[in-house]
Amino acid sequence: MKEIKHFINGAFVGSVNGRTFEDINPVNGQLIGHVHEAGRAEVDAAVQAARAALHGPWGKMSVDERAAILHRVADGITARFDEFLDAECLDTGKPGSLARHIDIPRGAANFKVFADLLKNVPGEAFEMGTPDGSGAINYAVRRPKGVIGVISPWNLPLLLMTWKVGPALACGNTVVVKPSEETPLTATLLGEVMQTAGVPPGVYNVVHGFGGDSAGAFLTEHPDVDAFTFTGETGTGELIMRAAAKGVRQVSLELGGKNAGIVFADCDMDKAIEGTLRSAFANCGQVCLGTERLYVERSIFDEFVARLKAGAENLVIGPPNDPASNFGPLVSLKHREKVLSYYQQAIDDGATVVTGGGVPQMPDALSGGAWIQPTIWTGLADDSAVVTEEIFGPCCHIRPFDSEPEAIALANRLPYGLSATLWSENVGRAHRVAAQLEAGIVWVNSWFLRDLRTAFGGSKQSGIGREGGVHSLEFYTELKNICVKL
Ligand code: NDP
User: Lesser CB count within 10 Å: N end or C end of the chain?
Assistant: First the structure.
């Protein structure tokens, strides 16, 4: 039985009052271990350690020295690949094949990419005239923002957490991480990697616990944290923004979505089906960038629905260690309750259930898991909650459209704007429509193709700010202008 502790000031420590909560395996409902829950005292210890580390060896290192350490962190994750893989699969239940190709390699890459970026990023300088004719020069230097509070979700635990920790550390900040209470394992294991990579104590800290009235809230209420980067639900983002307002702390928010996919009659149907099967059902639908609303041109509607149904029914439901499985459980029974409430709502609202809609029959050993069927609906009204609210499950609604302007209007009608996909072989149309979609990321004839140098983030209620490439620098550094009169 595992005991999962906080990682504070370079050491693993339990909670002062000994309070713990259970980490449950969503594959079979069995107990993985007991996780220590941080109170205000542990959060304060982590924040103080992070602040002190800013003024220790970490704060004095050159960019090259920091980059070398972060490369060792990435190599350390790779060296312990199977341990990270097992930990991520235990917490999330996701197929091993998925975590092997996405979560763990990307978790390592996030350290290398940002370390290398920092080594090569140019500065700015301006010469200016002065009334006495001698002139002045201005140049800008980047300084770390300070202690960064990192609050991350459970769907891609290592990947999304390191997406923040990588650039934060590359820029010279220190961090206090609060992973989701559902997925504490990989953030904790990363503490061991940090130790062996030579990251000084206090630079990377992890406190475990829940959100409201627990570690998450205590962290955002702590006055010594300089900025917060958060990925999670829009409602939680609002709470974090409110807490960060005290002391005028900056926030970077990557929030929820209800992403649209538009499929034009001039698409390559094979590509559109293959991409949509991934965007709707990968990671059991628990990807913020996934597609839950599809708009398909009427002339190909029936064929598209039939082929997506066949693809969904071909998914192989099973546990992470089954090499044939490409469809795992949801993260928890609690989340399944939420997703199933939308499955019921769809029926109440008059949907046609094309496939799925319930809980699959699993063998006895797995019957305690959070299994659910991939589900497709048609026939819902545009204002059904199933079509307007984020479900975060393996499901999508498909609706026909008749014209390009109608498809754009349908895609843009919700207050979210994280991502969109569009499928068309007409180059002119692809560019024209992509430009009009209100989303931070638009994929044309693809999905989840990510270059870590590009801007990532949501528009409207899907977030504030952009991370990725040089855009991460805007959040993780202060740009200071130095003006020198000559
Ligand atoms: P939540 O918003 O519920 O939780 C995210 C994190 O915030 C967790 O660590 C949670 O802790 C913590 N938290 C909850 N309440 C508070 C609070 N009051 N103060 C401080 N911290 C708090 O999101 P989920 O974990 O359910 O993740 C799914 C959501 O994340 C979806 O909406 C999805 O769209 C979004 N997401 C967005 C992405 C993007 O890039 N835009 C990417 C991936 C996911 P705990 O879990 O312990 O309660």
Answer: N
